[in-house]
Design a protein that fits this description.
This protein has 2 domains: 3-138, Immunoglobulins (Immunoglobulin-like, Sandwich); 146-466, Metallo-dependent phosphatases (Purple Acid Phosphatase, chain A, domain 2, 4-Layer Sandwich). 13% of the residues lie in helices and 33% in strands. The chain has helices at residues 174-187, 222-226, 230-233, 256-262, 265-272, 316-325, 360-366, 406-409, and strands spanning 3-15, 20-33, 36-39, 66-72, 78-84, 89-92, 100-107, 110-111, 118-121, 127-130, 138-140, 153-158, 190-195, 204-206, 209-211, 238-239, 278-280, 284-290, 294-298, 334-338, 370-373, 379-384, 387-392, 411-415, 420-426, 429-435, 451-452, 458-459, 463-466. The strands form 7 sheets. The protein has an 8-stranded mixed β-sheet with strand order 17-18-19-20-21-23-22-24. Strands 16-13-12-25-26-29 form a 6-stranded mixed β-sheet, with helices on one face. Strand 22 (379-384) and strand 23 (387-392) form a beta hairpin. The relative contact order is 0.12.
């Protein structure tokens, strides 16, 4: 008879200047030996002991009475403790701004995920192996948005990444990009991950129909999210936006509800964000500050059939929120918008997105400095009306073709390499590195991908923006 292995996961699902949303869960594997592993599908969780319906996320049944202890790192003293019997997550409040903490999760009196972990590796004998991976449960709260200037800080931006790490092809590079992200995380003080959508794709298509996992079950998220970014997710929060592959716009199933559940977005917004900072259902619109000087605003640019081709931000309640949110804010020197569909795109598959032009006057009015997008599976940098627009849609899915409409997209530079963005803000200067896959000859060194001007000249060095 096959045996089941439950691999525990930890998730810093939300973070502010005064609180942390800490979550835990597991993925189940069926095995006959250490060389034969099979991820258990959600519908087969009824066979594990005790039977389950979901294994991870806000809706999952509790694994048992749980306590979360948070300690101030500098002194080692206990700062907060929270107990729950009803969920696999809890808010820990009463924390101090911009302060380093460590934490532990105790379930049924035992530490969750404390030992050396089993991670999925690829090769002729695919499966879970122990290769030295251990959780370092440490985080730093955000600076106080009402009083603290934003010190120099770094964050990662990635888009169109959720193809899974089971196999790589010339146009599917999630495993390779995730390795580079982990190195950047270890070498830099990365404080968050921002996505530009398409967080998960359908497995593959036959005759135009998706076959395999589409993203609407927990097990679909193991290879696409929880395993590739495992040792970052327990330490920094992820701020996602919705792409067309996360909704029913281009797939037969809508993954939006599963994304909200697995990334604890409703709990995050309801539990710690003041009223008015979000607009949801249907759609995902929210904003947050990082210290006094930085604000990020997520806009849902996806379409739904019942809106007859309209984008969700055109829905009345969402448009009201967008208008109220995109107003001048003297305190936020650096104001970002992140959404999936790019207002400006030189192609080759997608070009300037229809209906996005109505947002441009609001961006200018609000003093938006940077807009982050995905959708096109390459990198592009455009500049228009004092705003820099970045397409970063090759976190895995890659199109090696050359863009073809530079003039109408106001293109400054572009690249057709798999990548993520490593963004650092220091006072009035913002530096953007377009980081690609690791070089096997120098695996401990991050590599910037080559970029090109529309005329074909190669551009070197990071992109530097100044206020």
């Amino acid at each position: 008879m096959p045996e089941f292995h439950a691999e525990p996961y930890l998730h810093l699902a939300g973070l502010s200047h005064k609180s942390a949303l800490i979550a835990w869960g597991a993925f189940y594997f069926k095995t006959r030996s250490h060389k034969q592993w099979k991820l258990v599908d959600d519908r087969d969780l009824r066979h594990v002991h005790p039977p389950r319906r979901e294994s991870i996320g806000a809706r999952s049944d509790p694994y048992g009475p749980a306590r979360v202890n948070v300690y101030e790192e500098a002194s080692g003293s206990l700062s907060a403790t929270v107990f729950t019997e009803t969920t696999n997550y809890c808010w820990v409040s009463g924390l101090s701004p911009n302060t380093a903490y460590t934490y532990e999760v105790l379930v049924n009196g035992e530490a969750w995920g404390i030992d050396e972990r089993w991670d999925w590796v690829r090769g002729s004998e695919q499966g879970l192996v122990q290769r030295g991976g251990r959780y370092i449960n440490r985080f730093r709260t955000h600076p106080d948005p009402s009083t603290e200037p934003t010190d120099a800080f770094t964050f990662i931006v990635i888009g169109d990444y959720g193809t899974g790490i089971l196999r790589s092809t010339p146009t599917r590079r999630q495993f390779e990009v995730a390795q580079a992200m982990q190195l950047a995380f270890e070498q830099h003080d990365v404080r968050m991950i921002v996505t530009t959508g398409d967080n998960i794709y359908a497995g593959h298509r036959i005759l135009g129909l998706p076959v395999g996992g589409s993203g609407d079950e927990d097990d679909d998220w193991f290879f696409t999210f929880f395993q590739p970014y495992r040792y970052m997710l327990n330490r920094i929060p992820v701020y996602p936006c919705i792409g067309n592959h996360d909704s029913a716009e281009t797939e037969e199933r809508d993954d939006r509800e599963q994304l909200l559940d697995n990334l604890y977005l409703r709990e995050r917004i309801a539990g710690d964000e003041p009223s008015g900072r979000a607009s949801m259902d249907p759609g995902l619109f929210y904003r947050f500050h990082y210290g006094r000087d930085v604000e990020l605003c997520c806009i849902d640019t996806s379409k739904e059939d019942f809106f007859k081709g309209k984008r969700l931000f055109e829905y009345a309640k969402h448009w009201e929120w967008v208008e109220q949110t995109l107003t001048p804010d003297a305190a936020a020197r650096w104001k970002f918008v992140f959404c999936h569909h790019p207002p400006f795109c030189a192609g080759p598959n997608h070009h300037n997105t229809d209906q996005m032009d109505v947002l441009l006057p609001l961006f200018a009015r609000a003093g938006v400095r940077v807009v982050l997008n995905g959708h096109e599976h390459n990198f592009q940098h455009s500049h228009y009306d004092g705003i820099d627009f970045f397409v970063t849609g090759a976190g895995s899915k890659l199109d090696p073709g050359r863009p073809d409409r530079f003039e109408e997209a106001h293109t400054v530079s572009w690249s057709n390499h798999a990548h993520f963005l490593l963004v650092t803000i220091a006072g009035s200067t913002m530096t953007v590195r377009v980081v690609g896959e690791l070089d096997a000859r120098n695996p401990n060194e991050l590599r910037d991908v080559p970029r090109y001007t529309p005329a074909g000249s190669e551009v070197t060095g990071p992109i530097v923006l100044r206020l």
